Amino acid sequence: MLYCPNPDCEHKIGTGKPAEFVEGTELCSDCGSKLSSELPHVEKKEEFKYTEFYKRIVFTLVVILLYRLLANIPIPGFDHAGLNNFLQNRPYVLLEAFTGFSMISIVSFGIMPYITAYMLVEIFALFTPPLKKWRNSGIQGRLRLKITALLFTIVVGFIQSYSMAKGLESMANFTLVLNPGVSFRVITALTLIGGTFITILLAEMITSRGIGHGISILIITGVFSRGIPHYWPQIKSIYFENSLVCVVPLLLIAVLLFIVVYITERAHRNIDIKYNDGKEYSMPLKLTTAGTTPLMFVSSVILFPASVAAMIAVPWVQSLANQLSPGSFGYMVLYAIFLFIFYYFFTSVFYNSEKINLFLKDRNAIIKVSNEQTAELYMDKVLERMAFIGVIYLYLLVKLPYIMIQLGAPMFIGGVMLIKATAILLDIIGDIRIRGASEELVKVAEFHDVPKAGLLKSILTKEGIPCYLRGYYHRALLYLFGPYIEISALVPEHEADKARALIKKYMFEDYH
Q: What is the pTM of this model?
């Protein structure tokens, strides 16, 4: 077979391939060039890579749209017009906080029963022998825990939804339920449980075929889809009815706030590590060492005694309860004290210097420190300084809405939610960058421990293997939310075998 070697041949330009001719032909019929028996080099286009990348983006957007459509399908049995009026007059009632929507749709509960079930399974795994064994037996054990959590989700979801339905039936002065009774409660419970499992399925679809971690994507989508419509009248009145003198400072504050959170969530301290074979790597320790986990305990510790005191009809006890109510000076002081205590406590739990050193010692590695101090003492000092910065940062973000209100400026999103949104955004940006710039990726490891995940990335990167940690930033905020936010280590498919060999050599564990 003869081919036209001319790269500017009309046939080549039109089809992308060189013109082909049978033996006996000497000149190309399109451009007149002399034919050759050698097939000209054809540059391979990167169309597949980008096509696959865009397919993932489109797939993610389609799933999000489907989820939002489901969020507008009401479950039967409610007077939804009356419910909307009820919520408009009471924007902070338990119902809206519990369901997460201004209407009761089939996916109102989202993944909250799943999260609750997974947290309970994690707690039971601390002292229940079978669960404890699964928790420490690698990927297969974690898969069994996941199945257990899914089964337990049915129980948790039924209790939550049945209780909500019964509570709506008993609301005084509001007839929100058309046909109250056991059948209504059971149908409501089954519908909401089904919606929870649909949400889990959609999240898994995004994780496997889309961009980012599916559950994180749906969480942040739900937050913005609820927040923007709810606050749109205020946003419009501020940014469209005021002069630039009022608007520009607010925009600058919002941008500056986002930059501060973005930089802080990315900040980390590298701990140098040396293996017996002479290889040196680093273990990154995040500046926000305890994430947002302490917040789940601080409010409960303060509000519980205040709630008890409020029920005691004694003047000085009632006065004490008022002084500890949210927004008061006493509440803010106690909040700061307990936040410091819990932040340092959880820092010692999540970044336990003794366990980290034992982990490295078992793998023939040491932390590089000066002769004057031990590795544990060195890590403790580093973590103490980082925790001090992290707890101040978290406290200021938690109290940001109160500060903004005192300054006369609006606050449309809470400081903690801003941290979570930024962490999820960082994971999404990283996923998009990798998907768009690399070939097909495969998962070589799965972590629920942030320091170990960071160490693996350091090892692979220094050995010339691109590595992306999906879910790293979101997981670092929610250590105690169970393995539903796992950190997946992804590498190019052709580097997978080499990566697994390095994991076996330096981590001594089968993570996948």
A: 0.71
